User: Fold these one by one.
Assistant:
Number 1:
Amino acid sequence: MKNLYIIFLLFSSFLSAQTHISFEAEEGFELGNMHEQNDWEVTEGADGIITNQVISDEEASDGVYSFKNAFEPDYDFQWMPIFGAVNEFEEPLDYENFTISYDVMATGTLGADFEFVIYTIIDEEFIPVGGVGVENRGNFYLIVDENYSFHPLEETHWEPGEWVNVRLEVTADEIAYFINDELQFELDNYTQADIHGFNMLHNNYGEDAYYDNFIIETEDMSVEDIEQDQLALYPNPTAGQLHFTNPAQIKAASIFDLNGKKVADINGNQVDLSGLSTGTYLVKLQLDNGKELTRKVVKK
């Protein structure tokens, strides 16, 4: 059995209020090994970078490409998930207001466990802030402490070949896990540390998983000159009309669902949301000074 280790480098660009990663050609990705594409890093073995962690056009939930977290036939199975890719942010992101969602599809049961983790770095040690495992028997598990202890979701299942949306919402006090927009579990934020990056790994027992349509949201901490109450959205939650305070600062505004699909453009100081389904949406604001903000709004 060959020895393995994971290497980490920096992600190429700072993540502002919202970032969408769908592994498409227009984002600078191309078919083939993921290593060093947009500064993503792939597991390295004794003989070099492993070869089957790739940008693929075999499956996609958004566009035509996805990341394939594939079986590595040249290596034995592992006790822990270590085969895959990692994305480390250029700067740590604020843990008090961080959301990440993505789509995942596994090809079959009774193979590998496919694990997604957001992590922090404390005293040069990588520590999980949260994570979701696509478990080999058809269930999910959630990472619930810094020792990778897990909570099984025995009533929530996945089917081979079907895409599932996963979302982690991190605040100063808690972490909330959603699968297909349904809340699964909440726990205390046990690290209360800024988020340095995320990875997608498996333990090489067989089968593959595909990841696509990452949406990362965080408070844009670069906008010190704008007070929270200067661009308030009200009422929030709302059953219909959504209003803006101080709309003169807004150059353009749009509303997106949590999958990154635009559902409305906004003109003026209000917008009618009555035609939207119940749920959480993101209002993306482009300001006259060139900066951007993202606010959450709940449609009742």
Number 2:
Amino acid sequence: MNHALILPLLVPLFTGALLLFAHSLGRSSKRTLSLLATWSLVPLAIWLLVLADDGQLRVYALGSWQPPFGIVLMLDRLSALMLLVTAVLAGFAVLYACRGDDERGPNFHALYQFQLLGINGAFLTGDLFNLFVFFEILLISSYALLLHGHGQRRVRSGMHYVVLNLLGSSLFLIGVSMLYGLLGTLNMADLAARVSAADPADGPLLAAAGYLLLVVFALKGAILPLYFWLPRAYASATAPVAALFAIMTKVGLYAIVRVFTLIFGNEAGQLSHMVDAWLWPLALLTLGAAVVGALAARNLQVLLAYLVVVSVGTLLAGIALGSEAGLAAALYYLVHSTLIAGALFLLADLIARQRGDLGTDLITAPALQQPLLLGTLFFIGAISVAGLPPFSGFLGKLMLLRAIEPGAEAIALWAVVLVGGLGMLIALSRAGSLVFWRASALAQGHKADPVRLLATTGLLFGSLVLVAAAGPLQTFMQATAAQLLDLRPYLQIVQGGAA
């Protein structure tokens, strides 16, 4: 048994617990411990990605309780990819936080580690109930991180976020209970086998449970009409927290892919692809509504939060295609959108620190201390997120548009994606002109901290890496999509065969 599969859980678990128990440690010691633990996840995730790239499905049974009994972790190409994206994003975000943002409240680094525990666990678990458990871990940590720094604005946004997600957790538990009551298992591979052999009379109840899960994942993933909590919550969070939250919506989308390709996928009989008819219109409506929100935004952080929702709609469109090419395009765009969104949230904070009391409000303000440097970084991020060449956003959207067959759906997707890209470009151009060109007075504030700049440019550099390695990455994404759509290795987990 390869024990490396459980290390992405053990490292943040024990680091977070140590930081809580040793709360009397000095600030520098806590920062060092948190940085070492977070960045150690990067080589670990790379190693797991190399292991997963051979196409073999690896299962880790805790306590040697074989599936479908006990707690099971499952590593395939998709989970390994998500672990790596999370590790890179978290590493740069915590580096940024160590320059002062972690001082705004107690136990920041412990909460940060528990957040990583929940996220990594959600990507690795092979059990639906444990997916609920890891969702709760990451949500409880995110509640505290969202309120980190205090302030009336954060408390108000945090209350909305908490109430909606508690409602989502209740629906999740109801859906899981229905599946367990009908099928007697919550192991995902075992559920896939039992759904296909279920009594047709139980079909409506199984469908109801599946739709409940879709609602929960849509809430976590910020899909229309359940995304209204996101702009205010992300805009009110501190910069490193908002950057880490860029992966949070992807957890919901990951759950949609995992559950509705495995449990309700090709082998589910009468319930095969039961949500496909819903995903396509929801994707286009989410994308369109988010672009309208971005055009109406009067604050840079709110604008960036709406761009996160735009990426959700784009990703959901690729997932809704249900094809290997569509999934591969969505996965490439997922990596791009996560890294660029994190970088832009950090960059917005750098801009706010040089605008005085006006912060990120999109109104005329004193000139920045470093308009050329920050303006260049903003230009790179804006071009990339809007989907213009030569950056990774362009390649991701191009792959998505090429993945759809000619027809009415293709016309709708091309229209929404291209018009939406134009809308994002207009919104970002307006924001850039107000921040960098229309100065009302001499420069104020201090120059950007070098470490904060390093963290921001490190994430932005990810767009260039995605372009430089586009060929190998596209091959890997296609292999990942093919693995997701081939259910035989997953079903062998509970059939006594080797994965």
